[in-house]
């Protein structure tokens, strides 16, 4: 779940993100950095550092929007000087040069993809002109780099195109922020794992912050306690409701990765709604639910370092033993990292 990356190893993502829901067999395998910037040591609420005006090599400092260009021009020293002191402890400048030099071979350009701001951190993503390599970096408000990952991009075109038979609605009401969502590992760390490939992590934000007040209290988070709803008609096949929410925020329960959970069978396609608030689930196994029915409230249970909703659809009732399915959303919705999406109340409910 944690992700202070050995910068360019391509197996972990970022230094300053939250954690939520895991790897292939358990939710505590990096490259997770899930849901949203966490308020504790993985928090994207980073402390700005002083920015160098001129690098030791005499070059202008690397600005966030120019990082990909600096990498492509082999300005590894300029990039490294922008690393936070903590990040420099994870990797040396020589390692950056070695891995960066190998990575840019055969690349003529990097195109900017996603740019997202939350909790004082700026997340930028670039992809290569051929679409086979990508960069994701996290900066603080002073442009200091707190996390950087460069990676080969693997795609799964067959399953990318195979959408669920059931058209799903968003499993909440109101505005929610997509922290992880998309069809590559840069926009969606889940994509690497077959069992979670098309999962989403949603938080709520107000004025660029996912919380207000004490970041160690669950109640400070805008998403905490909000209603979670059934995304489609179906039958409840599993309920977990007795796992305490993690306190203080930032402490995670790796023994119970999904935390409090509701699983709904839509006729061979199973919705998993995870990290619910302890004691809040309002349905039981065997219940029939309709689209928009409240099934519980959002919490911070399980292997989660901030209140957020993990949602996915799978081809079986076993979260880790089934394959994640690419969700067909109603109204041609296509939630992507960094977007705000709005869930509507069900008609006549």
TrEMBL record:
Could you tell me which InterPro entries the record lists for this protein? Answer: Cell_wall_metabolism_enzyme, Dup_hybrid_motif, M23ase_b-sheet_dom
Provide ranges: composition bias, Polar residues.
46-62
Which part of the chain is the M23ase beta-sheet core domain? 225-315
Look up the signal peptide feature and give its range.
1-22
The portions of this protein that span the membrane are: none
Q: Does the keyword Signal apply?
A: yes
What UniProt keywords are attached to this protein's entry?
Signal
Low complexity bias: where?
27-42
Q: Where is this region: Disordered?
A: 27-62
**Superkingdom in the source lineage:** Bacteria
- PANTHER family according to UniProt: MUREIN HYDROLASE ACTIVATOR ENVC (PTHR21666:SF270), PEPTIDASE-RELATED (PTHR21666)
* This protein's name: Metalloendopeptidase
């Amino acid at each position: 779940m944690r992700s202070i990356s050995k910068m360019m190893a391509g197996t972990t993502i970022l230094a300053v993100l939250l954690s939520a829901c895991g790897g292939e067999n358990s939710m505590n395998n990096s490259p997770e950095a899930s849901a949203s910037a966490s308020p504790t040591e993985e928090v994207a609420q980073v402390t700005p550092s002083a920015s160098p005006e001129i690098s030791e090599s005499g070059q202008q400092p690397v600005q966030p929007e120019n990082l990909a260009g600096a990498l492509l021009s082999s300005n590894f020293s300029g990039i490294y000087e922008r690393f936070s002191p903590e990040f420099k402890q994870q990797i040396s400048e020589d390692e950056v040069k070695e891995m960066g030099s190998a990575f840019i071979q055969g690349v003529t350009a990097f195109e900017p993809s996603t740019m997202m701001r939350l909790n004082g951190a700026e997340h930028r993503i670039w992809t290569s002109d051929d679409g086979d390599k990508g960069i994701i970096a996290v900066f603080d408000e002073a442009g200091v780099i707190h996390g950087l990952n460069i990676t080969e991009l693997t795609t799964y075109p067959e399953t990318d195109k195979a959408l669920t038979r059931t058209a799903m609605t968003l499993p909440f009401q109101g505005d929610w922020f997509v922290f992880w969502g998309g069809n590559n590992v840069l926009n969606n760390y889940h994509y690497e794992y077959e069992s979670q490939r098309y999962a989403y992590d949603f938080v709520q934000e107000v004025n660029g912050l996912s919380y207000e007040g004490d970041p160690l209290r669950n109640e400070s988070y805008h998403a905490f306690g909000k209603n979670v709803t059934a995304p489609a008609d179906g039958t409840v096949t599993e309920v977990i409701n007795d796992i305490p929410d993690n306190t203080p925020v930032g402490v995670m329960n790796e023994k119970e990765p999904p935390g409090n959970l509701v699983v709904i069978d839509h006729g061979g396609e199973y919705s998993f709604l995870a990290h619910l608030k302890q004691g809040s689930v309002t349905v039981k196994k065997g219940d029939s639910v309709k689209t928009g029915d409240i099934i519980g409230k959002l919490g911070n249970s399980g292997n989660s370092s901030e209140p957020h909703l993990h949602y996915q659809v799978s081809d079986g009732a076993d979260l880790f033993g089934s394959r994640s399915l690419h969700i067909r959303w109603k109204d041609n919705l296509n939630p992507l990292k960094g977007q705000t999406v709005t869930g509507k109340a069900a008609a006549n409910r």
